[in-house]
Description:
Blueprint: E1 12-17, E2 23-26, E3 32-36, E4 41-46, E5 52-58, E6 63-68, E7 74-79, E8 83-88, E9 95-96, E10 105-106, E11 114-117, E12 123-127, E13 132-137, E14 142-143, E15 148-149, E16 157-160, E17 166-170, E18 175-180, E19 191-192, E20 197-202, E21 208-213, E22 218-223, E23 240-245, E24 252-256, E25 261-265, E26 270-276, E27 282-286, E28 290-295, E29 298-303, E30 320-325, E31 331-336, E32 350-355, E33 362-367, E34 375-379, E35 385-390, E36 393-398, E37 404-408, E38 418-423, E39 430-434, E40 441-442
Antiparallel strand pairs: 1-29, 2-3, 3-4, 4-5, 6-7, 7-8, 8-9, 8-10, 11-12, 12-13, 13-14, 13-15, 16-17, 17-18, 18-19, 20-21, 21-22, 23-24, 24-25, 25-26, 27-28, 28-29, 30-31, 31-32, 32-33, 34-35, 35-36, 36-37, 38-39, 39-40
Amino acid sequence: MNLDAWLPSAYQAHGFLRRHFSSACASPDGKLLLTGSNDGMIQIWNADTFQKSNQEFRLDGAIVKLAWQPKGDVVAVLCQIGTLRLWRYGSNFKTSIALPVSARMEIGFAPQGGLAFSPDGTRLIVGAMGPTVSLIGVGRGTRIGTGFHQGATRADAIAFTPDGRKVVVATRESTARSYDAETAKPLNAPFQTHGSSSCVAISPDGSKFATGHDGDNSFQVWDLQTGLPVGPRISECGGIDAIQFTSDGGAVLAGGNTPTTRYWDWRTGKPVGSPFPNQTQALATLPGNRLLLYSHEGLGIWGLPDHGCKWTSAPLPRSPGSVAFRPDGAEMAVNVRAFRSTEDPTQARFIHRFRLNDVAGILPPIPTEESAWVRGLKYGRGDEKLYGIVGTGVSVWSVASGKQLARLTDGRFKTGEFYRLALSDDNRYVAVTGISDATPTIA
Length: 443
């Protein structure tokens, strides 16, 4: 984890629009913002300068949801009165695509509603009041089949999996279900969630989904195959209206009706970094490492840390002690502390290793020659070796084989117990310091 990336100053405010909007979305290239209002007005803004374009138009009824086609120029507009319109962005933003009869489809009363394009932009799912989530073919603007039958009330939380093969619908009746995106057939019995679902997100690998609940201020990550909860239920984040996984799937960004929009490690339930000072009804990641946060108070664009956050999670037998990163960032080594009588001392006889770009990347551990805590772990630069202090000496291990290559003792060091280790850039010198001798020793 990049420790500097989540300091409060790391979130750079690119701009704000302090106006009352009922919905907002961004173009796929992140250059334009589209906003809708309760009076039916749709306006276009420059995402860099926040200047309003002269291109605007008004529809009948409040704008509930806006969605922009991925890698395309079609915009879907869902109105509260229950109409759906598809528009193709043009010079005046009023060029309608060819819909049968008209550019207006009756979907059903939508006090909030859900709206999502498939990843390839060819299909659109629409949730409103009633037992059915509609599936729309974008090319012709017509319904495909009879839709997804989800329950008696409305479905605001709907999403495609990243491969576009499944649709997940989380309802206001405390259930969630996945469907085949082509046939609309259910793939499982309804899963029981913790409450009325206001939003849903799918993990990048399509194996998990998260539901946000605006009734009890919580969200939960679930296994998409079994419907079982994965990780703790997180309930300290305000009423949840918007939720999204990070690109590596290791964290969830959740926000709602309180200014506590923030990232969470869904495996541990712990917050990561500082919260954004925004209420959030919708959010989206934009190109250029930017984040769009929208609420009824307005919308803002934030610059995220350049390096973001890489997540690796694996169980350790005891509390971690010394930690080291390989210079190329591909691997991490951890030695556990085992110095209390209640702990298993044999666990400290290994250096545990993890592959950082793979959550399941547990590498073979390296055995050490003693049960003492290995301090001052360091990877060598380019020599595939690992260095660490064991007792009053320094041991050197091969990263490839895990075998000990050298043990620097026998008069090379002054007596005492060492705690810190430094390695020269060319790996020729090692320096150690301890608590019983104020003089650094170099070997």
